[in-house]
Amino acid sequence: MKPTTKEDIDPFEEIIEGVKHAKGVKQDTELDVDDLKTLVEKYKVAVKAKTGKDFPQEPQQQLWRAIQAVFDSWNNDRAKYYRILNKIPEDWGTAVNVQAMVFGNMGNTSATGVGFTRDASTGENIFNGEYLINAQGEDVVAGIRTPQQITLIGSKRWAELQGVPEDVRKNQFPSLEESLPETYQELKNVQEKLEQHFKDMQDIEFTIQNGKLWLLQCRNGKRTGAAMVQIACDLLREGKIDEKTALKRIEPNKLDELLHPIFTPEALKTAKFVAKGLPASPGAASGQIVFFADEAKKFAQSILVRIETSPEDLEGMNIARGILTARGGMTSHAAVVARGMGKCCVCGAGSLNINYKQRTLEVNGKVYAEGDWISLNGSTGDVFEGKLKTQEAQLSGDFGLIMDWAEKYTRMYVRTNADTPKDAQIARKFGAKGIGLTRTEHMFFEGERIKAMREMILASDLAGRQTALAKLLPFQRSDFEVTIRLLDPPLHEFVPHETAQQQELAQDMGLTLDQVKQKVHELAEFNPMLGHRGCRLGITYPEITEMQTRAIIEAALNIKAKGMDVKPEIMVPLVGNVNELEHQLKVVKKTAETVFQERKDTIHYLVGTMIEVPRACLVADQIGQIAEFFSFGTNDLTQMTLGFSRDDAGKFLPYYINNGILKVDPFQVLDRQGVGKMVELAVKNGKSTNPNLKVGICGEHGGEPSSVEFFHIVGLDYVSCSPFRVPIARVAAAIANLTYP
Amino acid sequence: MKPTTKEDIDPFEEIIEGVKHAKGVKQDTELDVDDLKTLVEKYKVAVKAKTGKDFPQEPQQQLWRAIQAVFDSWNNDRAKYYRILNKIPEDWGTAVNVQAMVFGNMGNTSATGVGFTRDASTGENIFNGEYLINAQGEDVVAGIRTPQQITLIGSKRWAELQGVPEDVRKNQFPSLEESLPETYQELKNVQEKLEQHFKDMQDIEFTIQNGKLWLLQCRNGKRTGAAMVQIACDLLREGKIDEKTALKRIEPNKLDELLHPIFTPEALKTAKFVAKGLPASPGAASGQIVFFADEAKKFAQSILVRIETSPEDLEGMNIARGILTARGGMTSHAAVVARGMGKCCVCGAGSLNINYKQRTLEVNGKVYAEGDWISLNGSTGDVFEGKLKTQEAQLSGDFGLIMDWAEKYTRMYVRTNADTPKDAQIARKFGAKGIGLTRTEHMFFEGERIKAMREMILASDLAGRQTALAKLLPFQRSDFEVTIRLLDPPLHEFVPHETAQQQELAQDMGLTLDQVKQKVHELAEFNPMLGHRGCRLGITYPEITEMQTRAIIEAALNIKAKGMDVKPEIMVPLVGNVNELEHQLKVVKKTAETVFQERKDTIHYLVGTMIEVPRACLVADQIGQIAEFFSFGTNDLTQMTLGFSRDDAGKFLPYYINNGILKVDPFQVLDRQGVGKMVELAVKNGKSTNPNLKVGICGEHGGEPSSVEFFHIVGLDYVSCSPFRVPIARVAAAIANLTYP
């Protein structure tokens, strides 16, 4: 961000500094009338030099110009950036209020300040804020003079933190309570009244003109995640709001701050900014740079820096403290996996030039080598130089209270996307009701498994594939527990692409290097996202579906034998045509029957499909007739409905958002008009032929509050999201139910 | 195709041949009662050996088994293949008729045969057909005995062609007219009556049992394209049918046979089949194999054989007689370009293994080298060995008559997709009303143009891109004439991927090879189909849209200055969000205004968009408010709605079709339930806010009759297709209008 502040575009600050310097004073208030006259003359010259026109002398004209300037401010870079950060649409525009002015700089019984009815940082129920005697509003925030505390207790706390002795505090930095006690008392009463009226923590701007208190503005105060939880719970306990209102006061996304470590404010003050990427997975992390996943162990604290990651990097990603990639969007491999792990990740930082050969990272001319320290803020997408101090996440008892309310008021329930027992445990702790998505392929990358998988892929015939699949079976059997998606990614992702690894594979399989290279080449696709993947694999190689079904059913029977209850749901991915599901359904049912006969026992299981191809939404009435559940794969549905490759969108998506063509990243926030319409259509069509159809969503949008609200509105039964998003989704679902009952 | 015929699965033919051989006779009819008894015994043994069961002796049981066998025949490979060829849905199933039998093999006053009321090959109005004395139906088609002609004139023509002297003909192969003159006369009367009744050429199966004529079956006869045209026009001239009926008798796809050369039937009889691919562009061609487009001139008649083609191959494709690729579907680059050129092309022949280094082509163990002759049938997808004789296309006067009817009865009009003046000329000859799609990028591949294009892509800043674009401007200006799509493909397609060419480019541009390689690498995308292309290019680099708009408007003004009328339509590709179109609209309008001022003249032009992203259909009401026309890009719309990459679908699409998961290739025939639904939605939405919206389609489906019918039904104004499909689309559109007025 290159902010367009007043300092960047006009010379006024420089001029006033010059005048004060010439006179040998430090405060603006030390300038007398003649000094101000000189200043005005110099200002007029500067305006003429900059604009080529005289400064208008007609007050009416000045007013109109000022109004115009406010309107124009909507389009400055800083405003644009703010809107992006806060997801405020470009097309809202701004309003201009014209009103009489009060002056806080009319002498020592005048002042200006900002107050909060409660502590915006901790949520503590204490009136607090800052003010300056003989000053205007900008002086308080500009940092030229040191603002003083409004309350005596606040002032004393401040002095202690800053190491300011009591006598110095009292003389040089007295509280408003001390310097203008009557006005303070009036302000204190007003703030109480305002909070009582608005029933929320208020942020109040005031000016005192010759001893008379004027309120300039009053609004609900911004607050940290911790303060948000504290204030909502306190207001409830104080009887000011009821439970539903308290819950609606929670901004679900802000709960993230309670779940992940963050950089300390002090550390951030001195941090040297390096680059900006996408806030792919929240939290803060510092570590030494490594460029290869299998070298993540090289340092005790490492940051894995990659152009992009692939499933082969899984183990290294787990070891590293954080992940930084130059390419890929909010649903790229790195982003999805990192969120699942609850690991800090910044994605798609396009200004990074990574050179794997030289093991260097170059950004705007500066080069970082392997072993250099960097720090990532996965909640903002910022990348910093060096090692920054972090503070750990802490969950208060009030957090549990909010989870209880979420449970009480929600209609939709929340599941988790989990590929490992650890994921499942974390999610369960956060209140997930089940597993909405297990990606079987993530199990294929460790040790012997990837070998057997590759053997299967390289097999030239059915018998060869069956032999290899038999080797995979035990791994799948010991892994499976709840809801499982059949093999989804293109086979190309499982084969090695470096010659050395191909050579190794060739030796393992008794093939020539050329044969392996040829097979890898054959598997390559122009657009793998739209290629031979999902159920297209299970249909052309039914033996894969057979093996996976056998593993699922056997695992479920094993669990049942231990006296536990299990409800496996087998999910067929990428269905676009009812015939595809029908084909896979037959394979699954036949295999399950065989296993039931072998084991002389049965279990109840469901077979459903992921709805992720636009066509599936259009023919969901047909699919609904044979599917027992739909689970929306909104990542792929977004890719195909919008024609945006999540891995390539980095080339135009940031431009689109910065220039108002898109309001938000559709991979973060569900595109209601496009993808949402598709989801709505599919639910309506599906339920028209199967009123009992269970419908959920397992795309990344399942953990994003605005999207969760939409899923509530269109009547989904559940959302499923990565473990650390579960609390957020639960609160969002409950609030959606309160808002749209 | 490996047909499952009776010969493949049972030993009956072998046994009867053995019995005849033992007796020293040649015809089945020469076996006496005892021989037949022996035969039956042997048959029973064979049945027992094959099935493990005795042949059932109970007639009722035999009948049920026979009925079952007919039902089962629906699923044999031959039937499946026939259904694919003729686009008959898998789920129709078959019926079984049980009726009393008549015998054509009861002696010399018995016979069986097949007759046509007109010549199925030429359309000539002459009764014709074949028969055999003392035979059953199968004997006529089985090829064991030489069938004889029904009419005397037919018999004489046959003898002349075969070089059979008149006395031999009369004694050994007499016509039915000669051998059973009374029955012949009866048959002749019946066929006249039948044609009179059905008002179309009839295909009649008959059996004569002891002199009594029985009709087994009567149906509209299959015919060649030439016969189809001839018969429809003749029946009209004979007053048997009216113009509308005559037009509806035209199967539009069959007109292809009149527009392209075909292999002679004699050549096909001895042709050695090599492989099967997709019938990507009709016609027949023989040539010597070349593997590189720039070597197409190496032989006077060459066939370009590639794994896939790219825009760089354009010139070589134009020189070659035909194109054969191992990969890619009906809308792959090779297919689209070949159809545009009217050049024979077979695509996606998956069994080919092409080795560019060794310049060889291997199929099922057999290797073909550069310079070897091969032959392609682009209408069927067959690849043959060697040089086959072809016969040229000939257009009769009746063809013109049919085009006149099409003009008279159609509601939709037909445009053409044309990138060169030659394309436009051909299409105009066939009656195209305008150009529905000019792909500007096809102009960027010749000589100096590709250099300037690459310079633009490699430029690191706006100024550099503008300099390069200025060099492209004159080329664009001299090319443009009518309806133009702005730059669509990803930039990666324009840069060279071989090191030698990259080296050359680096020298031309004054860059290092590494810099060029780096840029090419940066442009690479995971899923270019969903990447940085279409209007995403024009938005992130508005200077491209400016340059193209300037070229279009200047060209139009030049034409106007020559006193001609021109209506340019500027088409913004890949819009999914109204803001995208709005952005491009502004750039176009501003540029056009600038040119108008420079030239002190104006012209009327339209700005519209291609609808090819699913989301665009969902928000077409918004887009319709600012677009002046929609043109459906059904190729990309199919890719995204179904999630099928046209270049990769070869890995599963053939399997899907062969196994009934899909009925037809959705890139050939519009998927009405999915893509069609999208088109319908977009038309409805678009017209809801802009009743005057002009709507057309410029995808490959615009030349496919069933799709054209659908476009008529949903109310499009026009279809646009490759030049050689124009007559087909015109007839299809007119028939659709007659069927759904």
UniProtKB/TrEMBL annotation, chains A, B:
GO MF term set: ATP binding; kinase activity; metal ion binding; pyruvate, phosphate dikinase activity
Natural source organism: Paramecium tetraurelia
Protein name per UniProt: pyruvate, phosphate dikinase
Record keyword ATP-binding present: yes
Keywords: ATP-binding, Kinase, Magnesium, Metal-binding, Nucleotide-binding, Transferase
Family designation: Belongs to the PEP-utilizing enzyme family.
PANTHER family: PHOSPHOENOLPYRUVATE DIKINASE-RELATED, PYRUVATE, PHOSPHATE DIKINASE 1, CHLOROPLASTIC
PEP-utilising enzyme C-terminal domain location: 397-734
UniProt xrefs under NCBIfam families: pyru_phos_dikin
Pfam families membership: PEP-utilizers, PEP-utilizers_C, PPDK_N
Domain Pyruvate phosphate dikinase AMP/ATP-binding positions: 27-237
Lineage start: Eukaryota, Sar, Alveolata, Ciliophora, Intramacronucleata
InterPro entries: ATP_grasp_subdomain_1, PEP-util_enz_mobile_dom, PEP_util_AS, PEP_util_C, PEP_util_CS, Phosphohistidine_dom_sf, PPDK_AMP/ATP-bd, Pyruvate_phosphate_dikinase
Superkingdom of source: Eukaryota
